[in-house]
Amino acid sequence: MIPVKSVLMEELLAAVYGFYLPEHIRELTTDISIAELWKPDENGLDIIHHAILSGHDGAVSLFNEMVQDLDQELSMSVKPKVYLHLSCLLGRERVTELVCHNADAGVTVGSESVMWPHFDVIRNCVKRSKRLPLTSEQLDTTESVYRRIQAHMNSEPPLQAIDVAAMAGHIGCIIAVLNSHLVWQYTKQSSSLLERALHLGSLHAFRLLLTQHPDPYSVDYALQIALARKLPEFVAALLDFGADFKRALDGINPFHFIYLCSPFFYSRQVYAIVCRHVHGIDKLTAFLIERGFDVNNATPPGTFPLYSLLASLFQEKDYNPSRVPTRHIKALKIMLCANAQTDRNELESMNTNELSALTAYAGRELASSALNAFFIGLQASDTWRVHMAEHLDRMCLTLLEHGACAAGSSDVPSTPLHDLMSATATQHVIGHMHADLSTMSRMLLYFGANPNQMNSTSQYPIECYFSHLLGSTGMGGLIAYRRWKGTNNAAQVIYCHFCCLLYCFC
Known about the structure:
Elements: H1 4-17, H2 25-30, H3 34-37, H4 47-54, H5 57-68, H6 72-78, H7 84-90, H8 93-99, H9 119-128, H10 136-150, H11 161-167, H12 171-178, H13 181-184, H14 193-199, H15 203-210, H16 216-228, H17 232-241, H18 245-248, H19 254-260, H20 268-274, H21 281-290, H22 305-319, H23 326-337, H24 352-362, H25 370-380, H26 386-401, H27 416-430, H28 438-446, H29 461-471, H30 475-485, H31 489-503
Helix pairs in contact: 4-5, 5-8, 7-11, 8-12, 11-12, 11-15, 14-15, 14-16, 15-17, 16-17, 19-22, 21-23, 22-23, 22-25, 25-27, 26-28, 27-28, 27-29, 28-31, 29-30
């Protein structure tokens, strides 16, 4: 004898795959328990899977309502699986829109987390549909996308539902997902489709949307976000599209923009997706160089890339004081290997008013050389960790090895050695008495610095140190001096600086 529930389920499935939805379908669902209704069949498909495969938007809407009306405890035990990927694969636009009404649609879930049925099952179910059947050619195309999804490597960025839709060429499904209230949780409702796809980290959808003739403003803003978030693949897509970097960045060279632009923040859920795309500031630097961007582009003034990178490096160090900014250090080496100039003087031929305006525009202090920019950053840095010292020493040596002039120039107010002494004094005034920068001093001397050269105020480097220490914030400088004098570091610093004075006589 055939169980009553099986007969009802067969009738219900027949209605789902039929052209019309009988009026008594609600009565059928009331005669079947919720647990039975959402129980997977031998192919792992529940009732909503079948509704999606048939393309029956009325059935999907009905079952969505049933899920939303469930008691919370019961709903947790029978919560539907992720259906969005399946509807995007098949190009069911209206169904995709309805699935997104469900709070657990899984917009940011990767395809690796989806239990896909065998494609023969999908093919047979779709062929049963009297509402939205697919042709054999369409099914073959769908199967090709299905195989690509199955072959997707876990090491690659995850394929979200809209990535699946993009791979299958279903632009309508992409728009349905990006216009859903679930995506508005991650982005502003007024944001463009390109921006929403970028926020979700969906590279496939982003590329397909670029073929839909987006307006220039959307493209420009997407470029700004891609550069700020250090996303080389998205920047590459925009380059291939022909995005106007000069217009989008208001004439600023892209290196300066990615180093000192304002950071963008993610929700925790979206960050888990997007961070798989992020390669870091070093990879994006290498990519821009590879695509022909000039590392010595100093237009507009005050945005010279190498000095902006050094300023960004110290900002990163201060923002995460316990972590070494390894990506910035790698980016520095990449730029120097690409022949970035180390002797660019940003202060040339500018009056005081112009300098003030440029400093505000650049987002950092202007520099007369790479070493000057490095020591300015060190002087302005408000954190110091012992484990960072060797990395800072190595960066100084890297600059010197790539042509930075340790002796300085006669047309600048102070030499690198003066700048280093000021940075050392500032660290001690702040209270970092263990900051010993004597290794850098010896490096400068080895590469040609003159300890007897005076700056524009007729001070030797050693004088610059003590005048800066004692002259800082009035009484604060005297307190700092007394604190410095009582530490073990004092003897080392005095020895180091007197060695500087005696160096040229040895």
